[in-house]
Design brief:
single chain; about 250 residues; 10 strands; about 30% helix; alpha+beta; about 20% strand
Amino acid sequence: MSQPKILMLDIETAPLTAYLWDIYKPHVSVDQIITPTSVLCFAAKWYGDPQMMYHWSDKQTGPQFNKMIKAAHKLLCDADALVHYNGVFFDVPRLNQEFIKLGLPPPPPIAQIDLLKVVRQKFGLVSNKLAFVGPYLKIGEKVKNAGWDLWKGCLTGDASSWLDMERYNKQDVLLLEKLYKKLLPWIDGHPNLNLYVPGEKPVCPNCGSADVQRRGVQVALTYVYARFCCNRCHRWSRERTRSKTEPVASRR
């Protein structure tokens, strides 16, 4: 069986527009909305593949917009796992709203690896923003941008703004891939790569390396399992099947 197809994905969205009475904590009712938020562009790449995919649309409807959404839908249909940053609550729901609006069926269920969730659960950083995490772990930085002026430029069709947005979006995906590599041994619930490798020889469930070393045992409620540590990514794992019933002390 071949290795799983792991997709790195990041989207950018257009803001909604609405009529407001004032600018201080306004309450916006549904009938005040002129245009709802929508996907502006997305960048994606397959893990380990140098090719970057980028799709954009300066309109919220029309052939170019539909082409972009269909491209994102196809990628999710082809993926075995999806890596993102806060994508469970942001990127995926935003894409889903475009899919159903366009009449596309839901993509097949796949494993979602939300690196923001990993960072929040495993570490006590002063900030969980990607703009902080990247430099802190020395894996790279986000592209600095003009803030609201960048989005406004894209919405008004400014070519220079769209080039800046492309660089910004693509860099987030490159940073996402580097962070994924860095966090591999810390990711719980990662697709088990043992299932993609034939034979009984253990491999690291997270990175697929066969360079694993047996280190003691893992004692569960009723069984004892041999414990392994990956020499490449340092992920801890255990053997696929339980060990024979012999004293735990003799296995250490």
